[in-house]
C-alpha cells in the first residue's frame, strides 16, 4: 500500500480539528512527511530492508512522532500574545523537556532489543530508533523554527477577534429586542384559554 498521500491528507483533516489553526496542521503534516522520508532513507544505510515488519515499524514511528510535533505546536499556540520568537522560546522551554524525556524513555524501553542475535528483532528496533530520533529533531528543532518565522497568532488573539464579532440575530426580522418571545406569548395564550368558562 501507499502511505504518503493518504497519510498527509488524514493528518491535515485531523489537525484542522484538533490543532485549532490550519497553519499548525500544515507544519505537522510537513514534519511527519519529512520524518517518514528520513526514516526510510536511513534504513537503507543501516541495512534494514523494506519488509512487512520494518514497514509496520515505520507506521508506528509516525504515530509516535505526531505526539512530539503536536505538543510543541499546540503549546506555541496557547502562549500569551507576544512576538513569534518569544512564543516559540516559551513553548520550547515549557514542553520541550517533557517531549525529550518521552522520546528518550520510549527508546530506552526498546533498547535491549539491540542485544538480540535475531535479525528479525533488529528490523523492528532500528526503524523505531530512527523514528524517535527524527521525531524528536523535528519536534524540538524544526517545529519551533517554523513557528518562530511563520507561526499563527496566539489563541487568545483569535478568541478576542471572535468575541468582538457581532452576535447572530436570534429574533425574527419583524420583531424588536423588547418584544415578548414566542414562548412567553404561547404561555399567555394558554393561560387565557384556561381562564375562559367552559362551553
Characteristic key phrases:
199 residues, mainly alpha
The portion of residues assigned to helices is over 70%
Query: How many β-strand stretches?
Result: 0
Q: Please provide the ordered H/E string of secondary-structure elements.
A: HHHHHHH
What composes the largest sheet? none
Structural class: mainly alpha
State the low-pLDDT regions, or none: 170-194
Distance between the termini: 78 Å
Mean pLDDT: 78
Strand content: under 5%
Radius of gyration: 27 Å
What global shape is seen? elongated
**Count of helical regions:** 7
Itemize the secondary structure elements and their pairings.
Layout: H1 4-18, H2 22-45, H3 52-77, H4 84-110, H5 119-150, H6 155-164, H7 182-195
Helix pairs in contact: 1-2, 2-3, 2-5, 3-4, 3-5, 4-5
Walkthrough of the structure:
The chain is mostly helical. 74% of the residues lie in helices and 0% in strands. It has 7 helices and no strands. It has helices at 4-18, 22-45, 52-77, 84-110, 119-150, 155-164, 182-195. α2 packs antiparallel against α5 (119-150), α3 (52-77) runs antiparallel to α4 (84-110) and α4 packs antiparallel against α5. The radius of gyration is 27 Å and the shape is elongated. The relative contact order is 0.13. The model is unreliable at 170-194 (pLDDT under 50).
Amino acid at each position: 500500500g501507499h502511505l504518503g498521500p493518504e497519510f498527509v491528507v488524514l493528518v491535515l483533516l485531523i489537525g484542522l480539528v484538533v490543532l485549532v489553526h490550519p497553519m499548525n496542521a500544515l507544519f505537522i503534516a510537513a514534519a511527519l512527511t519529512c520524518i517518514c522520508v528520513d526514516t526510510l532513507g536511513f534504513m537503507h544505510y543501516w541495512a534494514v530492508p523494506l519488509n512487512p515488519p520494518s514497514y509496520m515499524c515505520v507506521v508506528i514511528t509516525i504515530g509516535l512522532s505526531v505526539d512530539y510535533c503536536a505538543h510543541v505546536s499546540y503549546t506555541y499556540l496557547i502562549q500569551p500574545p507576544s512576538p513569534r520568537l518569544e512564543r516559540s522560546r516559551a513553548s520550547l522551554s515549557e514542553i520541550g523537556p517533557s517531549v525529550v524525556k518521552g522520546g528518550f524513555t520510549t527508546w530506552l524501553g526498546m533498547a535491549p532489543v539491540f542485544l538480540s542475535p535475531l535479525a528479525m528483532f533488529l528490523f523492528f528496533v532500528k526503524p523505531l530508533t530512527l523514528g524517535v530520533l527524527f521525531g524528536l529533531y523535528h519536534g524540538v528543532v524544526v517545529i519551533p523554527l517554523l513557528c518562530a518565522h511563520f507561526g499563527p497568532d496566539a489563541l487568545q488573539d483569535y478568541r478576542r477577534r471572535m468575541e468582538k464579532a457581532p452576535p447572530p440575530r436570534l429574533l425574527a426580522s419583524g420583531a424588536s429586542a423588547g418584544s415578548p418571545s414566542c414562548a412567553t406569548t404561547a404561555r399567555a395564550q394558554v393561560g387565557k384559554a384556561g381562564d375562559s368558562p367552559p362551553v
